[in-house]
Design goal:
This protein is mainly α. The chain has helices at about 20, 25-30, 55-70, 75-85, 90-105, 105-120, 125-145, 145-160, 165-175, 180-195, 200-210, 215-230, 235-245, 250-260, 265-285. It has 15 helices and no strands. Keywords: Repeat, Signal, TPR repeat.
Length: about 290
């Protein structure tokens, strides 16, 4: 039997870290992230001849620069973050180092650091920074092929924010990778209750239903995703996979060709090409 690359839950490995994709640029954004940099303005004593500098703005800019470097040059960012920690950088410097480790592919170290960060943050800082750190830890463990640890981190975060759709999606990805498909569906059911117009949630649930051998439910979810987002290439890819499993080669070909046309340079398009090639080889070989 030819094994097709059906790519469960497409784009799991392409998840971006939402909390680091738009680094803090203002003191207001920094405070929203739960960090407090230095004393308030009225505590800063500056010479009359020098302009007053809000230390929180300065530190926020340093944090943003460190995160940007973590994405561009993680080795250099690690050195900078450690130096910053030695001079009182605190949690933002630790967070920057963790993200740099994630960028360079050291997912286990990043996961541990992010979990430690969530555990040791000051009690009065609020739940949002802790939730963000745990969410990123979950994604690090997932990228490091540790789905049980990823699910545990997401569960910790969900205890603080049980209706957070992104956290439910984090745990759904982890449970799927662990082969816990019905629990994946449970998380996606709740996520869809909270965000019924998100096409990606229906794509993921459709993929999960395919893995529990419920093709009707899989198709319904994937078609719903296309109703919301007619050009959704992940839904098209999954419909092609479902059609091929059911023996409908022409429908599979149509869906996979649509993926290639709409996103020719994507990873899904490459997988679609490989699947089409395998299907053609199988047909030429005379087997079903």
């Amino acid at each position: 039997m030819v094994r097709y690359r059906l790519t469960p839950l497409p784009a799991v490995l392409a998840l971006l870290l939402a909390a680091t994709s738009a680094p803090a640029q203002t003191s207001a954004q920094t405070e929203e992230n739960g960090y407090t940099f230095g004393p308030p303005d009225d505590a800063v004593q500056a010479p009359d001849s020098a302009p007053r500098q809000d230390p929180s703005v300065e530190a926020a800019a340093r944090y943003a620069d460190c995160l940007e470097m973590a994405r561009r040059d993680p080795d250099k960012a690690i050195e900078r973050a450690r130096t910053w920690q030695d001079t009182g950088g605190g949690d933002p410097a630790r967070h920057c180092e963790a993200i740099a480790h994630m960028t360079r592919g050291d997912y286990h170290r990043a996961g541990r650091m992010l979990e430690d960060l969530a555990r040791t943050m000051p009690k009065d800082i609020g739940e949002s920074p802790r939730v963000n750190a745990l969410s990123q830890a979950s994604r690090a463990w997932l990228l490091g092929n540790r789905p049980a640890r990823a699910a545990a981190a997401a569960t910790q975060a969900l205890e603080m924010q049980p209706d957070n759709v992104e956290l439910l999606l984090d745990r759904a990805h982890a449970r799927f990778q662990a082969g816990r498909y019905w629990e994946t569906i449970d998380d996606l059911n709740r996520a869809i209750e909270l965000a019924p117009d998100r096409a990606d949630l229906y794509v993921y649930r459709g993929s999960a239903y395919r893995y529990v051998d419920s093709p009707t439910m899989a198709r319904e979810n994937l078609e719903r995703a296309l109703e919301i987002d007619p050009g959704n290439v992940e839904a098209l890819f999954e419909l092609g996979a479902l059609a091929r499993i059911q023996g409908d080669k022409e429908s599979a070909r149509k869906r996979w060709m649509a993926v290639i046309r709409q996103a020719p340079d994507s990873g899904l398009a490459q997988t679609a090409r490989e699947n089409l090639q395998q299907m053609d080889v199988q047909v030429d070989g005379g087997s079903g």
